Amino acid sequence: MGLKDKLTELKENALKEINTAEDLKKINSIRVNLLGKKGPITEVLRGMRDLPKEERPNVGSFANKVRDELTSAIAERKERIEIIKISKRLEEEKIDVTLPGVPVKAGQPHIIMQVIDQIEKLFLGMGYQVVDGPEVEEDHYNFEMMNLPKDHPARDMQDTFYITDKLLMRTQTSPVQARTMEKHDFSKGPLKMISPGKVYRRDTDDATHSHQFHQIEGLVIDKNITMADLKGTLQLIARTVFGEEREIRLRPSYFPFTEPSVEVDVSCFKCNGQGCSVCKNTGWIEVLGAGMVHPNVLKMSGIDADIYGGFAFGLGPDRFAMLKYGVDDIREFYLNDVRFLKQFSQRG
Ligand code: FA5
Known about the structure:
By secondary structure, the protein is α+β, with helices and mostly antiparallel strands. It folds into two domains: 3-93, no CATH class; 111-341, Bira Bifunctional Protein, Domain 2 (BirA Bifunctional Protein, domain 2, 2-Layer Sandwich), CATH 3.30.930. It has helices at 3-20, 24-35, 40-46, 56-92, 111-124, 139-142, 175-183, 227-242, 295-300, 317-325, 332-335, 338-341, and strands at 129-130, 136-138, 167-169, 191-200, 212-222, 248-255, 258-267, 284-293, 309-315. Bound molecules: adenosine-5'-[phenylalaninyl-phosphate] (FA5). Adenosine-5'-[phenylalaninyl-phosphate] binds next to strand 5, strand 7, strand 8, strand 9 and helix 10. Keywords: Aminoacyl-tRNA synthetase, ATP-binding, Cytoplasm, Ligase, Magnesium, Metal-binding, Nucleotide-binding, Protein biosynthesis.
């Protein structure tokens, strides 16, 4: 058999093998065997040495043609195998859109935030602005502008985390009162604001006290504001958050920045006013302090106390949340145990 016939036969057999190869591994091994240095084509070409000189170019170019044909047959087959592989995968990985979905675990606002949101909504509806203040506060705003000069004995009412002589972790949201009053332009109308946020005190943690807790400050300054406006506002807050059934009481109290001052208690959720360990046997839980803004506070913020007056309050959303949801230990709010928190889902 001549070399050309040998090559033709080899090509036909190789093409059969190439076109029936099922995977890339197989096609790669065919390529190496067929076209490699020890492969049959190289072998045939070696036989050219025995051919007469004039026949060599003819056979040589035929051999190159065969090699090119096989190379492109291999490339085509390779591509085909890839396509088959992809369509097989697509077939296998088809998504069944009728299968039920995997539920996604959604978070929710913390129970204290839920109370703050509720109170914010109530006040926004009455035209109050919501104001933010810094948690790292100046002694000047936290105490002095609130009518608590240095060495005033009432500073002991709020044991303080000091950072420097002049800087502290605010013990109350009341400094936002001074910050807002200083900036207010009364030609544009009365001042009505609330300010929710975190406050810090060196209190010993127990069932109703935490060293970090929340307050919502409220402040209204205008002409002719009376104690009756304050009482009506406090009653509205209590009814909105707790419903009609829970009672509130006002007790005379003292704050350096209000005169007169009151403290507001809500009847204990646990014993319904009978007295228990949560309310320390009083039947009541203190939830907020309030009063008529002291003239000194107005004056220090540049407001004419002969024309303007108002009321202020500072309520504890943590205590509100305890009463509203029947939580008998404030520390639960700060442990962030998901099993506890998810009991109060807004989604029901
Ligand atoms: C004040 O902080 C005043 N700034 C409130 C105020 C504002 C009075 C404006 C008048 C005018 P007091 O220290 O009582 O007041 O705290 C207010 C409320 O914060 C309390 O009624 C209580 O609900 C809450 N509270 C106080 N200490 C703690 C504590 N350690 N843990 C949790 N809640 C607390």
